[in-house]
Amino acid sequence: MTASNASSDLPPSKDQLERIAAAATGKPEPRKQIDMGHYGIRIDRDGTWYHLGTPINRLPLVKLFATVLHRDEDGGYSLRTPVERGRITVDDAPFTIVAAWYDETGAEDMTTRRLMLRTNLDRIVAAGPEHRIRVETNPESGEPRPYIDTGNGLDALITRSIFYDLVDQAIPMERDGETVLGLWSGGIFHELGSI
Fold first, then answer.
1. Is-above-0.85 flag for pTM?
2. Domains of the chain, CATH where assigned
3. DSSP per-residue letters across the chain
4. Distance, CA of 151 to CA of 116 (rounded, Å)
5. 54-66 residue pLDDT tens
6. Across the strands, what pairs with 86?
């Protein structure tokens, strides 16, 4: 047996099997992500993106980065493509809410209308079962910190002015013997705080 025949008698490696399966199904060949470490990118509390301490002023570039932003299992954040992955720092939440309004199209009553929120990157999110508003309280200052889940574990901080506008529109509701303020959207009541 020659050396070339001996190698063909060996069973295919896992990588070879994956390439064969990819070719057979027409799917792209699976790739291992390269860990790039930390990219030197930070998102500050007001949603501004920085690279090595310099603000990234090109909004289309920030929007592109946001499309590959992921929440990691350890609670951190990373930018991931099929080829590489790198960590970034997020001071609070990766996005901020800069506008809010009610879309009452098709709403039969107050409980079925939809509160629409726009992020600083122009993404529109409708508050509802999949995108809930929650309010955390800073234990030191007692200041409310309102957020909405924009999907995939990525939150948007609702800016103070928008939050106070929402509080002005809130209605009281009795819950567990306590009166709370909140808003109906997407068929659920989103608590904003207690009276």
1. no
2. 34-90 (3.10.540.10), 95-194 (2.30.270.10)
3. --HHHHHHTSPPPHHHHHHHHHHHHTPPPP-PPEEEEEEEEEE-TTS-EEETTEE---HHHHHHHHHTEEE-TTS-EEEE-SSEEEEEEESS-SEEEEEEEEE-TT--SGGG-EEEEEETTS-EEE-BTTB-EEEEE-TTT--EEEEEE-STT-EEEEPHHHHHHHHHH-EEEEETTEEEEEEEETTEEEEEEE-
4. 14
5. 999 999 999 999 9
6. 79
Query: pLDDT, tens digit, for every residue of 127-137?
Result: 999 999 999 99
Q: Which residue has the tokens 């057979």?
A: 24
Residue 180 near residue 191, CB atoms below 8 Å: yes
